[in-house]
Amino acid sequence: MAASSRALDNAATQKLSPELTLSEPQTELLHRVMSFCERHQADDSALFVIEGAAGTGKSVVLNAIFNALQTRARSGAAGDPLKGLRNMLIVNHPEMLKLYRNIAATMPALRKSDYERPTTFINTSAKTGRRMDIVLVDEAHLLLTRPDRYNHFTQQNHLEEILRWDRSLPREKLPWAERPDTIDEVGSVYTIQGFDLNYAGVILGPSLFYDVKHDRIGVRPERYEDSAAFQGRDGIAAPEEAKTRVILNALNVILTRGIHGLFLYAHDPALRERLLRT
């Protein structure tokens, strides 16, 4: 029984389950969004933006909101303004999509088909003329802002197309963070973003070093291996500063994944020594 409970606690599905007890601010936000949906149910369009730092539980709240919407859409009382609505949650993150769909299999009001990638949703809507009443978007910063023909997105902006219509389906059923065969692998911001883990181990690679003069972490963008992270930033002012922000934002994401603890290893000896003195 103890081993079974521990496995359940470790499962990422439990950390994103709509059945989790929300904090008071999260509960208040859920009620605000539900009221917003009720007020604008008959409008052609309306937009509600949720903002928050990495690791603050935005995805947890969003899935709780979606579960509440689908519960009322599918089994609401007569006269409920949200009853019978067609809703969808979209996320441009294959690992998160797997997680959401796995959770849906355990919840009576949710279906795996309630969750989709944005490009698939947009292309299917354009082909069939299907429209949704309410669309929730998780990890909205991952939406495309220019065409990506390799992934079959020929329009200009994901969000604009989603509002207009307001898969690649990987063979693996489990997301990377939950697969037993990945225990000896090193993930990245792409495989772990949006997930909460009991414990996380982070390697601070060669792009990060100890800035002795200012007693802080320094950044070497030229040693950052994820060159794709810098795509689409041509023509912006201060490109090196922008690259530094991209790296630090990614670092912030992975450093906030561990709920109970975080293990750090720094490639730079000076940074490693400084962290040990913290």
From TrEMBL:
InterPro entries with a match to the protein in the record: P-loop_NTPase, SLFN_3-like_DNA/RNA_helicase
Domain (Schlafen group 3-like DNA/RNA helicase): residue spans on this chain: 164-268
Source organism superkingdom: Bacteria
The protein's name in its UniProt record: Schlafen group 3-like DNA/RNA helicase domain-containing protein
Organism annotation: Gluconobacter sphaericus NBRC 12467
